[in-house]
Amino acid sequence: MFGFIARRIGVLLVILFGSSYLLYNLQALSGDPLADFKTSRDPEVESQIKATIEQLRLDVPAPLRYFIWLRGVLGIFIGQPDFGKVRTGEPVGEILLDAIPVTIRLVFGATIIAILLGITIGVVTALRQYSRFDYSMTFVAFLMFSLPIFWVAVLLKEFMAIQFNNFLSEPNIPTGWIMGISGFIALFFGAILGRSRRTFWIGFFSAGAFTALLLAVIDARGWILEPGIGPIFFAIMSLLIAFGVTQISMGVGHKPSLFASLSVAVVGSISYFPMQALFKRESQLPVLLGGLVVAFVVAGIATFIFARIDRGPVYRTASITAFIIGIIMIVDKLMQTWGPYVSSGEVQYRPVPTIGERNPLIETTDFWVALLDTLLHMFLPTVALTLIGFAGYVRYTRGTLLDVLNQDYIRTARAKGLNERTVIMRHAFRNTMIPIVTLLVVDFASVVGGALITENVFAWRGMGTLFRQAIGTFDLNLLMGIFFVTATLALVANLVADLLYSALDPRVRVGSGKS
Amino acid sequence: MFKKTTTRILLGTVAAAALIGSALVPAQAATRDTIVLQENNFFGSFNTSKKTTNVVINSTVNSLMGMGFWYYNDEADIVRNTDFGTYTITNRKPLTVKMTVKPGRVWSDGTPITAVDLLLSHVICSPTYSKAAGIGDPSKSGDTAFESTCYTGTYGKLVTKEPAISGDRMSLTLTFDSPTPDYQLYLPGPSAVHGLVLMTDGKKGVTTNASVNRNAKTKFYNAYLNKDTAYLKKLAACWNNCYDMSETNEKTNNLAYISNGGFIVSKIVKNNSVTLVRNTRYNSGPKFTGNVQTVIIRSIDNPTAALQALKNKEIDVYSGQATADLASQLRAMPGIRTIGGNANAWEHVDLRFDTTFGEKDTYKGVFADKGTAAEKARALDLRRAFLLAWPRDEIVEKIYQPINPSTKVMNSIFYFPEQPAYKQVVANNGSDYYTDGTQAERTAKALALVKKHYPSASATTAGFDVKFNWGTPTNARRVATIALAKAALAKAGINLIAPGNANWNAEPIVSSDYDGQMFAWVKTSIQQSIGCNGYTYEENLTGYNGDSVIKPLCDPLVEEPQENSLVIKNLTAIEKKMHDDAYGLSVARHANVVGVNEDLDGIRLGFYPQITWNFWEWKFTK
Predict the structure, then answer these.
(1) Which residue segment(s) compose the domain that B308 sits in?
(2) B385 and B463 co-located in one domain
(3) Per-residue confidence at B17, pLDDT binned at 50, 70, 90?
(4) Chain A: nearest CA to B137, how far in angstroms?
(5) CA distances to A37, A48, A376, B291, B539 from A43, in Å
(6) Is the ipTM reported for this complex over the cut 0.90?
């Protein structure tokens, strides 16, 4: 294992060295950093040229100049990396450190959501092969594939920000809209659930009626401006989540799992009250981390009480339940923050922004207001990137799962009498993930450098903006800094993918290569 | 019993309805007091007199933080800022101006503003002083201690004598070497020199300790008077660096932004925004009549994103390059008011005559005004044909009027159609040669002139080529103009070669590679000196020499302020001469369009700066 990783890191360094040397020289050949001065009429141009040559070490030919850069970068091993300076004088390292978190914030959520949504819909379309749902999702996936992000962004801004904010100034949902939305939701769930005409209509009507009722209540109670879940609904939701998670993982028939999750849900519902007080404390990080630890401990205790054998899967079920309930509690707190946030003088009933990373008007130390503001600013870029990104996962998952379902061992599993849930989730899905992991890991690495247009459209200042600046100004140091980060990430991502293979696929073993 | 139940039900219903009703009506938010402006670039420095920091957003921030002796209003007039001080001409020959700061004016830290604060401007702009004080010779590149771009400006050429400060240190007397009708443009503005001294001495943080600030100011004054080379060099090192900052944090030294304007910086978020709050000690300009307490300037460089941000009320003012598309989008936007109309720039077409003054290479193109009388007559015919065929009506109708429907073809070289004197000038300036008849008739006339010298020319066969310089290929307005012109000129047998020039902004406009050029002049506010100087042989960009007529008409206007009737008479005569020689034609005044949140009153488009000049009038009505 360690031999394998060490060898891979060695290869990684060689690839990094080779590709950076190549890129450095190609980029140095591609443009002249002094081009601006050659057409300048400034009387001081001579001294500026001299200063630039000195600053960028243009007196040294590029193939040798590379080693000056490399010497700085190698400082990484003694803890003092020097990526050089950009042409305006700031150190490249600092600029990258400013930009990386921004880009990660931009693409991280979107990638996670795209993966979850894409894989879920992919699985459902595979299980409902050649159904209307399958065809509709295929259509949507290809549509999303073909949309340019700048255009999606403009539409999203118009409808989900500008129009929604206009709507918020008088938040009455028209009856027509209630019917339309309910109809859409009804069709969606009817199609997912419907294997026969009867299940279709049951899914259709229950989902439709539930949505319509929910929207009507939301409308009548003015919930949009003062949302919140409240302790009673929170308890109901917790129990439903316990049932749902158990059903997917072990089946509700598995009593230890069900009881463990249900007791986690009960403890979660009771802890709703003390948490409200804790959420008011000034520093929230210990509260959140502590809450997470407590949740997992509670899940452990519940598992210990209810399960005698096979505790692993039971604990997994209980802790997933606890985690989701915790997320809901945070969502509830954010909902409580929403009302004061939206009506504040800084927001003026226009909470969904179209640009930027945060509202410059808001000067608050309140954790929840700041979090809500950040999340709202992430909303549109995340939706845009998700829409574009999830289509790939849908297609990959569907294709792979169908492939797997036709394998012999699935037939064997069915033949030995396993129920469908176990066949799909335990036997088929796990093998489906193997090729998906490749896509997933490469996606993570490439998005860091690749959100160039998204950043521009939403006025975020991350790696994409830097990249554009580096190309536009022939800034070799900056470009190499960006390359260094993205290339390292890509190579590390491949390493992670290899390790994940071995975790997912029993046929793959990582070792020193001798055995 | 029955009644009781009914009443209960009724009461219950009413109560429930009231509850629902109260939940439905959103509470009305208080009147806004924060205005959000938009800029393309990121904030980087409070010092805009360096080459690297002369960026629009930096100037915008500075315009909110500083007031001087005058400002431009929205009609491009210079308005004397008597709240800050006064200036008077004390002597005409040589022109001597005495500027007096009104007593009691203070910086944002409470330090009184005196004439000493006006001296930094002289230090960074005067080559004479720089050489005398031993802090570098601006004529040698990279030699000066202050990295100022001002040394090469007009001020340094006009003022070589050292300004004198009065005994009470409230007045500064400036002596100009030559007569300068536009002298107001060169009057120095105040800088918080005590801040510079304190930063140079390694101090951190603004202090309200009056004696510390007073001593710092005196230290600057002494260094200035004694030409203390060593200390001036230290000041220069700080001046070059101390004002640069892209964000505010715990390391920020707020001595770098002492303000005497209406606002003062409170927070800068790197690459994102600059927040300014009211300067509570502001008394250097007109009193606030509006209610804006905070100004935020956000950096958004994608125009579509900025436009949608305006629609979403995330920004309150948006001004991009005025295109027909932008104008129609802004007009269609609910909740947005468009302001604008005319800009103070106008587009014009100039043709080459000869090598320009001081130029090395020589112009030998089709329009060259040299050689024998027959050759000169031929060039004149071709220039006239070119100008006759240039489709000004169509350009204005298709490109300018969609932005501003009242834009007209401009037939005067010096006057805008909106000016009172315009009609009188146009009637006598010889422009009727280029306006008579329809465009079709003018094109026919042009073709006849071309045929005289190129018999084979026709509406389908080009007689000769014209190489034309007009700007970068990304300038949408000019791309459209050139497309129309190329088609129209072809009908007169002229082949227009005008692919655009990506280096337009970097290269001099004067170039013998081209036979003509199109660009925009920006009008400064003082009428009489603009034109004359610009069109004499020494000054113009085409090599045109009409000095025998133009110079005598121009000289009295350049010397000193004259009666308006004489100005009109002389300028009309100059225009007549230039039109007769087919120097060039004006096309139209640029149109401007700016979208403003309709709840915001008081935004009027100024001359410079465009948006922030009247910050004291900004007012939210909702």
Answers:
(1) 35-335+598-620
(2) yes
(3) very low
(4) 12
(5) 11, 10, 50, 46, 19
(6) no
